[in-house]
Write a structure and sequence with these properties.
The protein is mainly α and 409 residues long. The protein has 18 helices and no strands.
């Protein structure tokens, strides 16, 4: 164990945060696999699958800005307990419907909307929690360790989940996800952060004013909105290709159980990327991470032109390394350059922008693949990823970002 890793683990709130994130992700890694095959078993239609996953994404984007306000107003540890309980309940309902054979596409869409709304509150809250649990000097290793825990949990969850779905069905995989959120709620309850002081005079700005303040902080940093614009395009192409068309390719070629191994291979790459981030600390890490996202086109391209298991394992692993190097650099850059009092709101704008086109990508790739073929659609998605990345990497403000002066406030 490295010195930096031991240093961050000395802080009890960080240990609770790490445990909660890891446990919840073990169950959550099963959910996309289980839900995808549950819908395919129900109707056999990639269009229906796209509608179900897009419904969650639409709700997520619609509620994110309010989620950021909630996270900046209320104790973040309390918010995470509440959202984890909400996620456990919604996933348990989906599992019950699938296990009892009463699931329908409209019911799954409704529950996906509820789950997406809960996640919209938890996502900016969780992202802003790390600076509250460790000193400024440990932000980069803390983010890397959190990502290691998340990736390790995803490897276990995706690998076990694929086998679980193949052997006993998708419903039990969704039940495991619900249990993971329930356990995470108990772990988040152990963080117990100091409460922020009340607003002088006992008054608070309106929700609209809070949202506007977050926009000013977000839009005033060119490098922030440039990277977010990159990911608006990149995520639509990558998520649509892998979440909707990936299971379709798996069903037509190497099988469902092997698809879990492919997802796990990406997570192995993510874990390797986090290990590299623990030791490699370039001054302009964000610019390097942004440019490296071109590698994320490899797994999408492999699905389109060479959907053989060995090729996909390698391509998804390399894509995972690139994604993780960017993710650690991005979190560190935001946490070091944005005041703590508005950090959740800036994260919420980041997530809205990054996710806003994901429902479009999820909903469109199915019909497009019917029209022009799955391989052609996947190659087109890979080209979109490369073009969006090149545009962001050529921007001077992105290349010049550093983490020299941690933000406070």
């Amino acid at each position: 164990m490295s010195t930096s890793t031991r240093s961050v683990l000395r802080h009890a709130p960080f240990r609770w945060l790490l445990a909660a994130r890891t446990v919840s992700i073990v169950g959550n890694a099963v959910a996309p696999i289980a839900l995808a095959f549950a819908v395919l078993d129900l109707t056999g239609s990639p269009v229906d699958l796209g509608l179900v996953v897009a419904a969650r994404s639409v709700a997520n984007v619609a509620v994110l800005l309010f989620g950021g306000v909630i996270a900046d107003r209320l104790p973040r540890d309390v918010v995470l307990v509440a959202t984890s309980i909400g996620a456990a309940l919604t996933q348990a309902a989906v599992a019950a419907l699938v296990l009892t054979g009463t699931a329908t596409i409209p019911l799954l869409v409704v529950l996906s909307v509820l789950n997406g709304a809960v996640a919209a509150v938890s996502l900016p809250t969780t992202a802003a929690m790390v600076p509250e649990t460790v000193p400024d000097s440990l932000l980069r290793p803390a983010n890397a360790v959190i990502r290691l825990g998340v990736n390790g949990g995803t490897i276990v969850g995706a690998s076990a989940g694929a086998g679980l779905v193949a052997v006993v069905g998708a419903g039990w995989g969704l039940a495991v996800d619900a249990l993971g959120f329930a356990v995470a709620a108990a772990l988040y309850a152990g963080i117990r952060l100091p409460r922020r002081p009340a607003t002088p005079g006992g008054t608070r700005p309106s929700v609209v004013a809070d949202i506007r303040e977050g926009w000013v902080e977000f839009s005033g940093r060119r490098w922030v909105w440039t990277v977010v614009a990159q990911f608006a395009v990149l995520n639509a192409a990558f998520v649509g290709a892998t979440t909707v068309l990936g299971p379709v390719v798996a069903d037509d070629s190497f099988g469902r159980a092997a698809w879990g191994l492919v997802v796990a291979a990406q997570t192995v790459g993510l874990a390797l990327g986090a290990l590299v981030a623990l030791r490699w600390r370039p001054r302009h890490a964000l610019g390097i991470g942004v440019a490296g996202m071109a590698v994320a086109a490899l797994p999408v391209l492999a699905l389109g032109i060479a959907p053989a298991l060995p090729t996909l394992l390698v391509a998804f692993a390399f894509g995972g390394v690139a994604i993780e190097l960017f993710a650690v650099a991005w979190d560190h850059a935001l946490q070091s350059n944005v005041p703590r009092s508005v950090l959740s709101r800036v994260y919420s704008y980041d997530m809205v922008g990054s996710f806003v086109a994901v429902p479009l990508g999820e909903a469109v790739v199915g019909p497009v693949s019917h029209a022009v073929g799955t391989p052609t659609t996947l190659v087109g998605c890979a080209v979109v990823i490369v073009v969006a990345t090149a545009a962001a990497a050529c921007t001077r403000s992105v290349r010049r970002v550093t983490t020299d002066a941690p933000a406070r406030g």
